[in-house]
Amino acid sequence: MAKGSLQRRRDHALGSGAELFYDTPLEIVRGDGVYLYDRGGRRYVDMYNNVPCVGHANPAVVQAMAEQQATVNVHSRYLHEGIVAFAERLAGLNHDGIESVVFSCSGTEAIEVAIQMARIVTGHRGLICTDSTYHGNSELVDSLTNVGCATNQTGEIRGFPFPERYRPQEEGLSEEELCEAYLARVATAIESLKTERAGFAALIMCAIFANEGLPDIPSGFMSKVTDLVHREGGLVTADEAQAGDGRPGHWWGYEKTAFRPDDVVTGKPMGNGLPLSATAARKDFVDAFRAEKDYFNTCSSTPLQAAVGMAVLDEIERLDLVRNAAEVGARLTRELECRIDSHSAIGDVRGCGLFISIEMIKDGDTKEPDAALTNSLSDRLKDKGFLVSHSGKFHNVLKIRPPLVFSHANAESFLDAFDECMVELSG
Ligand SMILES: Cc1ncc(COP(=O)(O)O)c(C=O)c1O
After folding, report:
1. Is 269 in the pocket of ligand 1 (CB under 6 A)?
2. Exposed/middle/buried for 357, CB within 10 Å: 0-12, 13-18, 19+?
3. Residues 410-424: tens digit of each pLDDT
């Protein structure tokens, strides 16, 4: 069947406007490890998808899924050893203040749990997030999207400018002064919530600001903002939906960016494709949440989720993927940084394990973002067999976020293709 016709059927079956990547969309029919294959049999190196963290169609995960489904899968209102063991293991991978877990099926749901928990624990409703974040798509969680950072905001949500050194909120400051300037914006946001009925419940932030474009964060900001929030009586949620499960070269993004959150939200890679997410926190916080909400989520906290989640953790450990992310990511980042001087369109390269951002610009002096070039680069890389995408406030950040089984050899072949594209696009 011609691809055009599949796209037309899709428009009808799913409604027009359901987003597709690339000017000529890909029809993917098979995955294996770090590779994806289209209907014509063409192989692509997947450098975008974080969900299949232990590789597409990972045999151990597939086997765990099939065996559990063939044995039993029920909702959470029965005792089951596997579910308890999975919750214990997940909590144990975190800092010692993380003791108990609420499972759900998506990052959105897990963030909702974190928000409700913070509101119950603090008795207040106000939330703070960055001006360019995304934490999910329910009505409540989506209200954290595109909040901006104006200082005259009202209601229960306040935004602050995400902390970054490449386009700092104020030029000419030392790193320490810049850090203080961003902290002052958070303090203003908290103050503003406290003068309204909402009060202040929580700061919710991705541990590495992935959707903001993976900025270079002024040193000390994350721990200082955590201290500030605690002094003001609020909780800090680390959203690890993108950052977590080994990608930063540590188990969690908050270890890399050095702060101690009160609760930790994990999602996307946890089930290698099976819907699985979690909100983990101190036991008394989780107890308070359960006492108030009687939370039930039909397909979560099931034997199937636990078996698959355990298999993913086993595979991350067996394949030594946290170390792989650190080593391959660091080398690829270094190689890309070497290209900044020879390509004026590359403004900055930032890496956090196997999460790398390349900031594309029109002009080195003004740092004017080049979203069109980023898009062309992504399309051209696809034509050469490498799948990436873009992110950031200005859509000009090439986003490299492969499955964690991505190897040094994959990185080398990508660099060849990247160099070819940069020459072609500058010609
Ligand atoms: C940082 C972050 N948090 C939460 C979510 C929401 O996760 P889900 O799509 O599983 O609801 C996303 C989704 O892109 C995300 O990037």
Report:
1. no
2. buried
3. 999 999 999 999 999
